[in-house]
Design a protein that fits this description.
This protein is α/β, with parallel strands linked by helices and about 200 residues long. It has one domain: Alpha/Beta hydrolase fold, catalytic domain (Rossmann fold, 3-Layer(aba) Sandwich), CATH 3.40.50.1820. About 35% of the residues lie in helices and about 15% in strands. The chain has a 6-stranded parallel β-sheet with strand order 2-1-3-4-5-6, sandwiched between helices. α3 crosses α5. The longest helix is centred in the last third of the chain and has 13 residues. The radius of gyration is 16 Å and the shape is globular. The termini are close together. The relative contact order is 0.17.
Length: about 200
């Protein structure tokens, strides 16, 4: 059985979107599913660095779970959680089994005009070479109508030799904009298939 992490995005929590449902479904199969709460600033105190999220605090949070991170671990990350995952994978000493990135991004081209182009998650350059060594498999989910263009997913997939899954009209894979994303059957089935093929 696998240790599986679900990593939320900006202003996120373990209780939002498809996270509780996915945790329940994977737990039924005997996997240990961990959904940490990362430090997020109150939404009414957003600053000009796009919300004041601090990469160092997120790293410290996941370090508390280091005993569950080994070569059979799976990461599933959403939105800003993907940015965090890039950095974390570049730091770990042994590669994990797989990384599933949902609505990932790299660039700030589509950000609101009043936000800075750089925050703590982007001050450190992405080390794609080390990142690739941090996970033996990558799979990316990008929507045709997200604010983040499909070209972002294509670029990330190229850098990581990842499988790219383009989903039509899935927005940001978020229940706040599309209520059906309290579940995510496509992701569940693909994670299950990966585990079955690599057990």
């Amino acid at each position: 059985m696998k240790n599986i992490f679900i990593i939320h995005g900006s202003y996120g929590s373990p209780q939002e979107n498809w996270f509780p449902w996915l945790k329940k479904e994977l737990s039924k199969l005997g996997h240990k599913v961990l959904v940490p709460q990362f430090p997020v600033p109150p939404t009414d105190k957003q600053d000009s660095s796009y919300g004041g999220h601090k990469l160092s605090e997120w790293v410290e949070t996941l370090n508390d779970y280091s005993r569950y991170i080994d070569n059979e671990t799976i990461f599933i990350a959403h939105s800003r959680g993907c940015i965090f995952t890039y950095h974390y994978l570049a730091k770990i000493k042994q590669s994990i089994s797989a990384t599933f990135l949902v609505a990932p991004w790299i660039n700030f081209l589509w950000y609101p005009k009043n936000s800075k182009r750089i925050d703590s998650f982007h001050q450190v350059p992405f080390d794609w070479k080390k990142m690739k060594k941090g996970s033996r498999y990558f799979e990316i989910y990008q929507s045709t109508n997200d604010d983040t263009p499909v070209s972002e997913g294509e670029e990330i997939a190229k850098k990581l030799d990842a499988k790219l899954v383009v989903v039509k009209n899935a927005g940001h894979f978020s229940a706040s904009t599309d209520k059906k994303f309290i579940e995510f059957p496509l992701l569940l089935n693909n994670v299950k298939d990966f585990i079955k093929k690599n057990s």
